[in-house]
């Protein structure tokens, strides 16, 4: 048909313009194979190397004494801390903690199984919880009640209602925790872990507890 001849002529002319260096025989060969591939050579983009900012090494930090605090500054910091910390400031934190535990335990209902709640509390974050030292080898710790501000591997930092910051060791102490009528006991000797480590630890529900 006349239309197909016009199409061939158009393609031939198009290829001739697009690839002027190609001979007519090569163009005709491409047309007979009924596959036209236009040669295109894009320019290679040169990647710019990013310069990495180098920080101080551990040895350089020690030599520069970046993280060392003078003893006078430490004493001043402790004085400021005891002046600023107030029990009433952290009551909203305690309310948030109670709601967090209720959500974690799907509501503390009367028919809830105690051992299931106990297992969740053992792995829960205790920052904001109100605890009481019920037993201790050191009688001066017994009766201390307050909100947990910080939990470390070996100690709890507790703010009491008298606005005093107490550092209570976990070892040889038993803590009680009450929420919505449910009372749980924390045996500090079996609790010598950081808060981040407790979430992955498997606790035994049965066993002997010694102070």
Secondary structure: helix percent: 25-40%
CATH hierarchy, class of the domain at 89-200: Mainly Beta
Mean pLDDT across residues: 77
How far apart are the first and last residues' alpha carbons, in Å? 104 Å
Report on this structure.
This protein is 36% helix and 18% strand. It is an alpha+beta fold. The protein has a domain at 89-200: Ribonuclease P/MRP, subunit p29 (SH3 type barrels, Roll), CATH 2.30.30.210. A six-stranded antiparallel β-sheet has the order 4-3-2-1-5-6. The mean pLDDT is 77.
List keywords for this structure.
211 residues; alpha+beta; SH3 type barrels; 6-stranded antiparallel beta sheet; 7 helices; 6 strands; 36% helix; elongated; nucleus; ribonuclease P RNA binding; Rpp29/RNP1; Rof/RNase_P-like
Short description:
The protein is of the alpha+beta class and about 210 residues long. The protein has helices at about 1-20, 25-30, 60-65, 70-85, 90-105, 115-125, 195-200; strands at about 130-135, 145-150, 155-160, 165-170, 175-180, 180-185.
Strand-helix topology:
Layout: H1 2-18, H2 24-32, H3 58-64, H4 71-84, H5 91-104, H6 114-123, E1 130-136, E2 145-151, E3 155-160, E4 165-169, E5 173-179, E6 182-187, H7 195-198
Antiparallel strand pairs: 1-2, 1-5, 2-3, 3-4, 5-6
Helix pairs in contact: 1-2
């Amino acid at each position: 048909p006349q239309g197909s001849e016009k199409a061939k002529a158009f393609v031939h002319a198009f290829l001739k313009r697009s690839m002027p260096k190609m001979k007519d025989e090569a163009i005709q060969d491409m047309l007979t194979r009924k596959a036209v591939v236009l040669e295109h050579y894009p320019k290679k983009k040169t990647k710019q190397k990013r310069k990495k900012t180098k920080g101080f090494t551990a040895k350089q930090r020690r030599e520069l004494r970046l993280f060392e605090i003078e003893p006078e500054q430490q004493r001043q910091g402790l004085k400021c801390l005891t002046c600023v910390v107030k029990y009433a400031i952290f009551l909203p934190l305690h309310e948030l903690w109670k709601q967090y535990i209720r959500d974690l335990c799907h509501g503390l209902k009367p028919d809830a199984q105690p051992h299931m709640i106990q297992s969740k509390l053992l792995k829960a974050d205790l920052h904001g919880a109100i605890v009481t030292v019920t037993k201790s080898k050191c009688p001066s710790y017994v009766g201390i009640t307050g909100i947990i501000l910080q939990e470390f591997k070996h100690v709890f930092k507790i703010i009491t209602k008298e606005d005093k910051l107490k550092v209570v060791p976990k070892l040889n102490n038993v803590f009680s925790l009450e929420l919505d009528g449910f009372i749980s006991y924390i045996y500090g000797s079996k609790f010598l872990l950081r808060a981040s480590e407790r979430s992955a630890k498997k606790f035994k529900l049965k066993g002997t507890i010694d102070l």
